[in-house]
Amino acid sequence: MPCSAARRFSMLFALTGSLATAMVATLVPGSAAAQSDVHKSALHSFKVVTVAEGLVNPWSMAWLPNGDMLVTERPGRLRIVRGGKLLPEPVAGVPAVRVVGQGGLQDVVVHPSFADNRLVYLSFAKPNADGSQGTTAVIRARLENDRLNNVEEIFEAFPYSATPGHYGARMAFDGKGHLFLTSGDRMAPPQGDLTHHAAQDLSHHHGKVLRLNEDGTVPNDNPFIGKSGVLPEIWSYGHRNLQGLAFNPTTGDLWETEHGPQGGDELNFIRPSLNYGWPVITYGANYGVGTEIGGRAGEGMEQPAAFWVPSIAPSGLLFYTGDKFPKWQGNLLAGGLSSGYQQLSRIMIEGSRVTNREPLLQLEMRIRDVRQGPDGYIYIATDNRLSNPTPIVRLEPVD
Question: What is the tens place of the pLDDT at every residue in 335-356?
């Protein structure tokens, strides 16, 4: 599918560095700074403040109506930050997880009607009987007295795989009774006939965005309902390792970020039934050798709204709507994990089009998740490859 001139323009800046990058490069420190330092951006100055310490591979954050923060730790623990302090004991009732490579306990989201039903949802790498394989699964449970009760598995991706990564596992509610879930391609190698790659195969869940009802059943208006050989949960396909998922609260549009191979990380505007191309379309290259994988376009396949070369390894995605950074309202914020290009990307959009980008916090922290708290501040879960404890921090404006 040919892309418009505007989209080609936005993708050119994605490849070579946005205009905003050039404009603010002298304003953003290139090395780690003390948390008391003031960070300057194009529209707001801010500081980084520690919220909670001592977490091991924190993967996601969510808030309860009483102000408690839930934090998942990839090794398999659900933690509570209450009154600014990390409670010493993890929440009981979390299912067994396969903690191998990138897998473990991953996303946590709170049901929109939690005050009435007390439901929380966890995505995780589920082990098979002997732990040799795993898959992406989702449970929901009632959170009562700091433990999970009535734990119910509502989804299990098909098939299992022995590979240690690319689980996806990001979740988001659309406010209309549906839960969206990402399922990565489980490291299926991009070789042979690329049109037969796992992400292009509609008979299983790898490399897909999925749409479920809140109880895990399949909505009867999903785009592939009734089609032979196609799993009915599939909403979109042709994805690699989807690590960010967020709805625009104003328009209801769904956006997603995913890892490319050695470059070619993507930001995608997600619409039902569409094919986002991996690995037939990619702006990345084969690891190590740098050779081309697929092409830059494919018939019936969507172009990314923007991409990153080199990779930032995007993880966590947020539409900012708070009042603490009013000039950022309506912007996307995407975290970056890459050791060489760690950053928080502020992305400006108009409709389905990216208009500009600004990198923040360059080379300062490995960002696993980014969320807006109920207080309007921006919270970041930082991560360490060696599983050393890392903090939750937040951005606060500086007048």
Answer: 999 988 999 999 999 999 999 9
| Partners of 270 in the β-ladder | 254
pLDDT, mean of residues 31-48: 77
182: exposed, middle or buried (Cβ count in 10 Å: 0-12, 13-18, 19+): buried
Quick one: CA torsion of 113, 271, 334, 97, rounded to 10 degrees? Answer: 60
Alpha-carbon gap, residue 178 to 42, rounded angstroms: 37
**Is the CB of residue 371 less than 8 Å from the CB of residue 334?**
no
CA distance 166 to 242: 8
pLDDT at residue 23 tops 50: no
SS3 state of residue 142: strand
Cα–Cα distance between 387 and 169 in angstroms, integer? 20
pTM of the model: 0.91
| Residue type at position 63 | W
The helix/strand/coil state of 147 is strand
Please tell me the distance from the alpha carbon of residue 267 to that of residue 130, in angstroms, as a whole number. Answer: 37
Pairing status of strand 378-382 against strand 390-397: antiparallel
Per-residue pLDDT of 146-156, as tens digits, reads 999 999 999 99
Separation between Cα atoms, residue 331 and residue 348, nearest integer Å = 5
Active-site positions?
166
